[in-house]
Amino acid sequence: MFRKILIANRGEIAVRIIRAARELGIATVAVYSTADKEALHTLLADEAICIGPGKATESYLNINAILSAAVLTEAEAIHPGFGFLSENSKFATMCDEVGIKFIGPSGAVMDTMGDKINAREQMIKAGVPVIPGSDGEVHTAEEALAVAEKIGYPVMLKASAGGGGKGIRKVEKAEDLVAAFETASSEAKANFGNGAMYLERVIYPARHIEVQILADQEGHVVHLGERDCSLQRNNQKVLEESPSIAIGKTLRHEIGAAAVRAAESVGYENAGTIEFLLDEASGNFYFMEMNTRVQVEHPVTEFVSGVDIVKEQIRIAAGQPLPFKQEDIVLRGHAIECRINAENPAFNFAPSPGKITNLYLPSGGVGLRVDSAVYPGYTIPPYYDSMIAKIIVHGENRFDALMKMQRALYELDIEGVQTNADFQLDLISDRRVIAGDYDTSFLMETFLPK
């Protein structure tokens, strides 16, 4: 096992990793920007090193500064969390080159699965169903028109090297495609340095289903069931739950087996998530992409599976085999996560950084967890993600979990900044959400009509 690890992240995920490491008896090193000098992760870690100014490009995305901090503190491994450098293949490879274990997959696997075209081709080889679409990258609007004519409208334009909702446009008809292609391609180039696109037929409405997998260094891959992430705004997840109300025992087995095949086909190591679209009308599911890191919504899977995903990430990176087989994983009860962000729903969810003057996070009772890195008097900086906390509940069944989440949101009190807490409470109390009658279209077209 490692003696010391560095956490190349900030916020609640950095705090989550520090806590897991401490429970494993591992010392931790936090890195922080000047804007995060008083952040909770810097206070909880055994050591903390400033790596640059507030801008992420000069601190949390500064590979040389982070590696220098790891060498200086004699850290044996680096956990990247999610976001920032977590899916940066160059960073993973450089860690390996300087003799520091990257807690995640190799850079080569990241390149394979991070490039949507390569991933699509790999999934076809592995017998994982994919959405009908272009055979490779599409570089011009003219090429896009030809592909769309072949597969039929509506289509989804996606950045080949993209993620996080960037470089994505839905196109309903041919006359809108050229403008959408140029806008999405420019956005992709600005965010990822690559303007290449690809097209897929739109499976809509659908369920956004993702399957959590763990893979050790010996090639053993296990899935921990699925999460339903269909409640989204502008392709960004708002609320997640596990298991999905739309999936029965047979389909759960099929989609889980497909996720395992996907990971095995690329020699995957560590935690990862295979994302699918489920067409409820036909019962068919299609591969969308793989996230080669731990995800924001991992706690709902931890609640229903009983597996500490972050601890397993660290153990796998240290060379330990998975302590369980697929037949040992039994999903129990139901879990829901609500993301509480510093944003103003009344003004199109505009970010609301500032000082938290008062804070009460819900507590008490079995099956309630709050992951957060804020405290009364903490100032949310304007440079990063606006997440304040994740509220996660677990119940004996879905209704039990829904009622527990409603209770938790009623108790939540945050003053000093605008938040989406009331919006989340309205959402979790909506009769259609309670009935499970929603898909990827629900939030934007029904709950938040224009």
Automatic annotation (TrEMBL):
Residues 1-448 form the Biotin carboxylation domain. One of its GO terms (molecular function) is ATP binding. InterPro entries: ACC_Biotin_Carboxylase, Acetyl_CoA_COase_biotin_COase, ATP-grasp, BC-like_N, Biotin_carboxylation_dom, Biotin_COase_C, CPAse_ATP-bd, PreATP-grasp_dom_sf. It is an enzyme of class 6 (ligase). Coiled coil: none annotated. One of its GO terms (biological process) is fatty acid biosynthetic process. Keywords: ATP-binding, Biotin, Fatty acid biosynthesis, Fatty acid metabolism, Ligase, Lipid biosynthesis, Lipid metabolism, Magnesium, Manganese, Metal-binding, Nucleotide-binding. Pathway: Lipid metabolism; malonyl-CoA biosynthesis; malonyl-CoA from acetyl-CoA: step 1/1. Residues 120-318 form the ATP-grasp domain. SMART domains: Biotin_carb_C. It catalyses: N(6)-biotinyl-L-lysyl-[protein] + hydrogencarbonate + ATP = N(6)-carboxybiotinyl-L-lysyl-[protein] + ADP + phosphate + H(+). PROSITE patterns: ATP_GRASP, BC, CPSASE_1, CPSASE_2. Its EC number is 6.3.4.14. It comes from the Bacteria. SUPFAM superfamilies: Glutathione synthetase ATP-binding domain-like, PreATP-grasp domain, Rudiment single hybrid motif. This protein is a component of the acetyl coenzyme A carboxylase complex; first, biotin carboxylase catalyzes the carboxylation of the carrier protein and then the transcarboxylase transfers the carboxyl group to form malonyl-CoA. Acetyl-CoA carboxylase is a heterohexamer of biotin carboxyl carrier protein, biotin carboxylase and the two subunits of carboxyl transferase in a 2:2 complex. This is Biotin carboxylase. It comes from Streptococcus oralis. The lineage of its organism: Bacteria, Bacillati, Bacillota, Bacilli, Lactobacillales. The gene is accC.
